[in-house]
Write a structure and sequence with these properties.
This protein is α/β, with parallel strands linked by helices. It is built from 9 helices and 10 strands. The protein has one domain.
């Protein structure tokens, strides 16, 4: 079983690495309450990007599900396969004159720092979006995190903890991006993850993606553009 995608076929990965010195690999599991433990508080599972783009294809869903089952059933084997692939990816990047970068949780939220993965590969820059505020500021230097926002009331303790760290906060907006949100400037986060995780104290605006039922969702994980609401008032 191959765990990582190293060919840049993910649209966001492709946009992020194009024209840079980096080559980006990514790992996509099928999210559940164990691989995404922050999802119940944030109320984001139903509107997750797992069904956006190629994620709605049966073979893609099956591949992600198989990898998730391996994580649950034989974690030791999963981590060993991941280490092998990371070593191979790092060597391949060296041959190509590229800097290796890896997104370990494309649509999951596993604290890989607790399993020693980023520590074992200091030459690889790793990054992820997370809903676990306790992870922020506690990862190795080569493992960068962005916090994923939700306005769900029971999630606000996590949001406040994240805001206190000063890390970038990603927000999914409906109706375009406002100029400011959470008393921070908003940048277009759909352009480049490399820019996003280095942007500092900003809101990383992400366009709402997915099928019609997601577009019409009332989940507080999705934020209506407040600038449009003020104009309509």
């Amino acid at each position: 079983m191959k765990l990582m995608n190293t060919n840049g076929s993910n649209t966001k990965i492709m946009k992020s690495q194009n024209g840079t010195e980096y080559r980006i690999a990514s790992l996509s599991l099928w999210p559940d309450k164990l691989t995404c433990p922050g999802s119940p508080l944030a109320d984001c599972m139903d509107d997750c990007l797992k069904i956006a783009g190629r994620g709605c294809m049966a073979n893609v869903m099956q591949s992600r599900q198989s990898k998730t089952e391996l994580w649950h059933d034989d974690r030791e084997l999963f981590l060993e396969l991941l280490r092998q692939e990371l070593y191979a990816f790092e060597r391949s990047c060296q041959r190509q004159g590229k800097l290796p970068m890896v997104r370990l949780n494309t649509i999951s939220d596993i604290p890989y720092e607790k399993h020693g993965i980023p520590q074992e590969f200091p030459g690889i820059t790793m990054y992820d979006y997370t809903k676990l505020s306790a992870r922020l500021g506690r990862t190795p230097e080569n493992y960068k995190l962005l916090f994923s926002y939700s306005a769900e009331p029971k999630y606000q303790k996590s949001v406040n903890m994240a805001l206190d760290t000063g890390c970038p906060v990603a927000v999914v907006f409906r109706g375009g991006f406002p100029e400011r949100f959470l008393d921070r400037p908003v940048i277009n986060g759909d352009k480049s993850d490399i820019v996003n995780f280095t942007a500092g104290r900003v809101v990383v605006g992400l366009k709402l993606k997915g099928p019609k039922r997601v577009q019409q969702s009332t989940s507080k994980f999705i934020v209506n553009n407040p600038d449009l609401e003020r104009l309509a008032a």
